[in-house]
Amino acid sequence: MIATTSSPSAPTTTTFDELNTRAQELLPDFRRKIGELATNVPDEHLLKFLRWKPDIQRAADRFHAHLAWRKKNPGLFDDTLRISRDPELERLLQTNVVIAPPQCRTRAGGPLLIGRLRNNDMRDGRSPRDVCRMLFYTLDRVLEDPEAQLHGVTILHDLKGFDRSRNAHIDIPRILLGGIIGHFPVRIRAIYLCDAPTGFHAIFAILSRLLFPKKLRERCHFIQDTSEMCTDVDLAMLIKELGGEVEFDSSQWVQDHKRREENGSLVSLTDLVEGSGQYR
Question: What one-character-per-residue DSSP string does 211-240 give?
Fold first, then answer.
C-alpha cells in the first residue's frame, strides 16, 4: 500500500555552503577513488555526486552506476540530448507533460516538478523513448539548481484527465524509473499524486513495488486536492492552472535553454564522461 499520510523526508538544517564545502574537501579523495574515469571530468559534475551523498564510497558507487546505465542505454542521456540538435525534444518539452518552473519551490527551498500526464498524447506519434529523453532533459536542468542537491526534489503529478489508453505506455516508467532510481545523483523528497482516476491506485501500487525502493514508496502520497500538501508547499508557489500565482511559459523556457546550449553556458551532466573514453 502506498503511504498517504506520512511526511516527506525531513528538511535538512545544513546550508548549501556547508554541504558544498564538505563536498570540496572530499573531492581530491573522490577523484583518486574513481581513478582514470575522472580524467578531464569537470569538478562541478563530480561535486554533484558528493553533494548528493558526502560519502566517498557511496558517491563512487552512484558514479559508477550512472556510467554503467548510460553505457547500457546509449542515446538516452548523452550529448545528443540538446534542444538545438533534436526537434522532437524541442517539441515535446513544450507539451507541458512535466515542467520545472524555477519559481516553484517547496517551503524548504527545493525545486518542485509538476507533471500533467493528460498532456502526454501518445497518439501524435511520440515514442516512449522520446518522452523519456524529454523527462531526462528536464531532470538535467533541475540538477543545475544547488537547492535540488541540498533539499531534494519534490514532484507533484496532477492526474486530472489522465487516460491510460492515450497518455501512458508501459515502456515509459520502465525506462524512466529504471534510469533515475539508483543511477542519478538526485534525492526525491516526496511525490504527490493528485486527483488520481479510478484504478490508478492499483496500477501505481504494482509499478511502485516493482520499481521503487521502500524509502521512495513511503514518500508517495495520494491526495485529492493540492491543499493537502500545504505544509510542504506554499500553494501560491504553484502554477496558476493549479491555483497558484506562478506564470510559466514552456516555450520561453525552451528558448532560454536553447540559447544556453548555443552560447556554452549550459551545465549538463550528459558531459560527465568527456575525456573518459571507456564509457564513450
Answer: HS-HHHHTTEEEESSGGGGTTTS-GGGSBG
